[in-house]
Specification:
single chain, about 600 residues, alpha/beta, UDP-N-acetylmuramoyl-L-alanine:D-glutamate ligase, eight-stranded mixed sheet, eight-stranded parallel sheet, 18 helices, binds 1,3-dihydroxyacetonephosphate
């Protein structure tokens, strides 16, 4: 079995840019332009990776499936140590990732693809996504296929602009077609020869496989599509069912890294474990949730909390108003530039955005990771003023269906109120309440990871209170010690887990308000002394601070870096309050509410 791949071997260089640095110039229309003369020896990008791209990806996938393939006109081969090539590829492509978004830049002219008419027999000719064929090459392919009637042709159709390629379709036994391609030539080929690919779905006839695109950091859509098509094609040749082929392609795009697609045996074992296979992605999801310079929006107010918020502004607490309000937040222009993830409440996760998608799907399609609050609120311990968090009953089953819906992380909040006796001795939180709540947090985190969702563990020292910043530091440290002990006991993978925590700050009613400098220094100190360095990240709640206070205090904390973990915001009130006050339940205020919301998002991203 021999396959001839026709396409261009490229070298892709991924530069994850630090968008704050001065090699960007902003024009009068606020468009950022990259100054390409920047000095790369300075730290202007977070990381730099390079890999073979284009036809090389196809070759790698086919080789890892155990198939023998060659690229027309190239000596590139894949060994167990990766791609090997005597000649460097002629085309370099730079993939610049700024603010989480890729853009592409090809400094050398895009080469046309050379097709050398083979002297050998090939079972398949695979016209790769990277092929840039001129009329002469197309004619040579036609001539070869005419002479070699047993050779099957497979064509990847990226767009309908290359009309020369369209002339090959009638001879193709399999066509990969990206969504949105509308060539009249497509109607003449049987649907049994067509596989449709998009970033969220692979489909063939009435079978389809949903994809979770969480790979904005390493796998841009360039290699994504090549891996998908080559895996499906390879699996068809190997005699796999359509269903299995689509699933193995999903495993490959969701788990591959640069120059490291997966061998067949690994794809098969991942597929056999699905949905548990998603566990392998947990660390990646956790780190994508805290990618700089963005945060996480908490929009997970339960029925009771949103009711109180609406009531204060005389907004009727109806299903429609709750939907409209969340729709306003999530459709704020460029939300994806400010947040990596959004935490939803169950009702919201099921509600529909204006475009008819569920909010879960809507956020996913904007490359924002949707998450879900899974605790079921607070309940008093028997005969006590202290609370524990409910929600472990049936949690595993709820998480399974949340995973199916596309939710990829979860949140569970424990709340601790600070009170004193007459001699100013701390009465609550008691050791019992701390231990018990941390045990529940760890139990929840473990169940989350077993079901493929990243847990956010949130122990909150409630801001309402008469306590000093010193007591806040002591208590926060004590709670964190207990929490990480319990997480360790339950063997929770900290690299796939996030901490959401209060800033260290004097209680709202304490006689002396804390300054930002104090908050920054004390919070940094407590975290550095009580949080293990292998945790995936730390995010802050705002707790009832004003929006400006929360931003200033976040900035003050960050000044005390570097930290061993990424740090960012996950505010609810400090992001949403100005928007809610501007909206007032009236959709004619949507634009000003979105502007107010975007201003808070921007202010917080600026300090990261
Ligand atoms: P606040 O930022 O309003 O404190 O809310 C964060 C949160 O998610 C509380 O669970």
């Amino acid at each position: 079995m021999h396959i001839l791949v026709v396409g261009n071997v490229l070298k892709d260089v991924y530069l994850n840019l630090d968008s704050r640095s001065d090699h960007f110039e902003t024009d009068q229309n606020s468009i950022e332009w990259l100054d390409l003369s920047f000095n790369a020896s300075e730290h202007h990008f977070f990381n730099r990776n390079s890999s073979f791209g284009g036809a090389a990806v196809t070759l790698e996938v086919l080789s890892k499936l155990g198939l023998s393939a060659t690229i027309s006109g190239s000596s590139l081969s894949i060994t167990k140590d990766g791609p090997s090539n005597q000649q460097p590829p002629e085309t370099y492509r730079y993939i610049l990732i700024s603010n989480g978004k890729p853009c592409y830049f090809v400094p050398t002219a895009y080469q046309s693809t050379h097709f050398e008419t083979p002297t050998d027999f090939y079972d398949y000719i695979f016209i790769d996504r990277s092929a840039n064929l001129n009329d002469t090459s197309i004619n040579h392919i036609h001539s070869y296929l005419n002479l070699s009637s047993n050779t099957k042709l497979v064509v990847y159709l990226q767009n309908s602009k290359n009309t020369a390629i369209l002339s090959l379709l009638s001879r193709a036994s399999l066509v990969f077609c990206e969504n949105n391609v509308t060539a009249p030539e497509l109607s003449s080929i049987s649907t049994e020869s067509l596989v449709h690919l998009s970033e969220t779905n692979f489909s063939y006839l009435d079978l389809s496989e949903k994809i979770s695109p969480q790979r904005i950091d390493v796998l841009t859509h360039l290699s994504f599509y090549s891996i998908a098509a080559a895996t499906i094609f390879g699996c068809f040749i190997l005699g796999k069912s359509v269903e299995e082929s689509l699933k193995l392609a999903k495993m490959n795009v969701e788990n591959s890294t640069l120059n490291a697609t997966l061998p067949l045996s690994q794809l098969e074992s991942l597929a056999a474990e699905t949905p548990n296979s998603a566990i392998n992605n947990l660390e990646l999801i956790a780190s994508n949730l805290v990618l700089k310079p963005k945060g996480i929006l908490a929009a997970d107010e339960s029925g009771g909390s949103i009711h109180k918020k609406f009531e204060k502004l005389n907004i009727p607490d109806t299903y429609e108003n709750r939907r409209d309000y969340r729709n306003l937040l999530f459709t704020t222009p460029n939300l994806e530039n400010y947040v990596n993830g959004v935490i939803l409440f169950d009702e919201t996760a099921h509600q529909l955005a204006d475009n008819g998608e569920t909010f879960t799907e809507f956020l996913t399609s904007k490359l924002i990771i949707p998450g879900i609050k899974v605790d079921q609120g607070l309940e008093n311990f028997p005969d006590s003023t202290e609370t524990f968090t409910k929600g472990l009953d049936g949690l595993s089953n709820r998480l399974k269906s949340y995973f199916e819906m596309g939710l990829r992380f979860a949140k569970w909040r424990a709340a601790f109120n600070v009170t004193y006796d007459e001699s100013q001795k701390i009465v609550t939180p008691s050791d019992y309440a701390i231990t018990e709540n941390c045990r529940l947090l760890a139990e929840y985190a473990s169940i989350c990871q077993n079901n493929g969702l990243v847990p956010i563990v949130e122990p909150e020292l409630v801001y309402d209170g008469y306590y000093s910043i010193e007591d806040s530091a002591t208590l926060t440290g004590k709670i964190l010690d207990q929490l990480f002990q319990k997480l360790k006991d339950k063997q929770v993978n900290l690299r796939a887990c996030l901490l959401k925590v209060n800033m260290v700050i004097a209680g709202k009613q304490f006689s002396i308000a804390s300054t930002s400098d104090e908050i920054g220094a004390k919070t940094a100190d407590v975290l550095k002394n009580h949080v293990p360095s292998d945790l995936a990240g730390i995010v802050f709640l705002s707790g009832g601070q004003t929006p400006e206070q929360a931003t200033d205090n976040l900035a003050a904390i960050i000044k005390h870096g570097p930290f061993p973990w990424p740090i960012t915001f996950s505010f609810a009130r400090a992001l949403q309050d100005p928007a809610l006050y501007a909206w007032k339940g009236d959709n004619s205020n949507t634009k000003s509410a979105q502007d107010a919301f975007a201003a808070r998002l921007q202010a917080n991203c600026n300090v990261l």
